[in-house]
Amino acid sequence: MPEPTTLSYLIVAALLFVIGTVGVMVRRNPLIMFMCIELMLNAVNLSFVALARELTDIDGQSIVFFVLVVAAAEVVVGLGIIVAIMRNRTSLTADDMAELKG
Amino acid sequence: MELVVFVLASAMMLVGALGVITRSNPVHAALSLILTLFGVAVHFVALEAYFLAAVQIIVYAGAIVVLFLFVIMLLGVDKAEDLATEPLVAQRWLAGIAGLGLLGLLVVAVSRGVEVLRPRGNGLDTAAQGADGDANIQQLAQSVFGDYVVAFELTSVLLVVAVVGTVMLARRRMAGEA
Fold first, then answer.
1. How far apart are CA B174 and CA B159, in angstroms?
2. First vs last Cα of chain B: how many Å apart?
3. Which one, A73, A95, B63, B133, has the greatest CB density within 10 A?
4. Looking at residues B77-88, what average pLDDT do you find?
5. pLDDT (tens digit, 9 = 90+) per residue, B23-52?
6. Which residue of chain A is at minimal alpha-carbon distance from B90?
7. End-to-end CA separation in angstroms for chain A
8. Residues 106 to 125 of B: which have CB under 8 A from any A CB?
């Protein structure tokens, strides 16, 4: 049975990235848009790890470690902003945030 | 065998991802995200990145998705959203076309680029080479705490800034305070 090549991992990662991109473009709920950003970050992480094996270089895995940390910080700040904005509102769509004040 | 794992994990990942963008209930979307993250973790194991697979589960599925669920519950937005009406005319069609175009570009780019890849690093330590089961963790630690120690220290600053900023954002304003 053939083994999956690096190319197949990269193509699966590309599919995941595109699904995340389409999600950001289509959905209006900011929470879901954040989840789609996580999908894109995961796609990039997957291609980093696949390339780390292809290039036999541990640096690819180190970068994924840092991406994880930055993603965690980004989610914390983003959700904090969403909570601060949504405290005075009832609906939750990205279109409601057009006025730049809390 | 490895191919079976690859197909199953990819299916998990893509089904979960489609669930995130098609479920109308945010809680279901968050649970679909967990499916995707587990699929990525399985890929990490197959690619011999054992430490990252564990971190993926602990940090993403254990912390980030739980944070999402907390916020969904806290805001009380766990109601199904109306997805039948399209907010902008032809938004979904255009997004689909743009997505297909991006996919085409990415596939062409990686399939051309992958041909010129040559091993350039010092090799990945795996458990099979002796040492013990921790070879991947040891090598990753030498890289993170050796070559990239400055970046590692900077991420700790980043985390502190993020925590302080979030506390400031989420705090209720006291009366009479600017």
1. 26
2. 63
3. A73
4. 71
5. 888 899 999 999 999 999 999 999 988 899
6. A26
7. 58
8. 106-107, 110-111, 114, 117-124
Domain total of chain A = 1
Q: What is the distance between the alpha carbons of residues B22 and B167, in angstroms, rounded to a whole number?
A: 32
The stretches in chain A having pLDDT less than 50 are: 102
C-alpha to C-alpha distance for A17 and A11, rounded to whole angstroms: 10
Among A45, A56, A70, A76, the strongest candidate for a mutation testing the B interface, having the largest count of B CBs within 10 A, is A76
What mean pLDDT do residues B142-161 have?
92
Neighbours of B10 (CB within 10 A): 23
**Is A102 a member of any domain?**
no
Interval B52-81: pLDDT, tens: 999 999 998 888 999 999 888 888 776 777
Separation between Cα atoms, residue B153 and residue B133, nearest integer Å: 27
What's the CATH number where A83 sits? Answer: 1.10.287.3510
Q: Does domain B1-78 have CATH number 1.20.120.1200?
A: yes
Residues of A in Cβ contact (< 8 Å) with B37:
42
> A52 in a domain, yes or no?
yes
Q: How many residue contacts between A and B have a Cβ separation below 8 Å?
A: 238
pTM value is 0.89
- CA dihedral in degrees (B16, B21, B22, B23; nearest 10)? 70
Instruction: Report the alpha-carbon distance of residue A75 to residue A35 in Å, rounded.
Output: 9
What domain range is A21 assigned to?
Answer: 6-96
**Cβ B19 vs Cβ B35: under 8 Å:** yes
CA gap B176, B178 in Å, rounded: 7
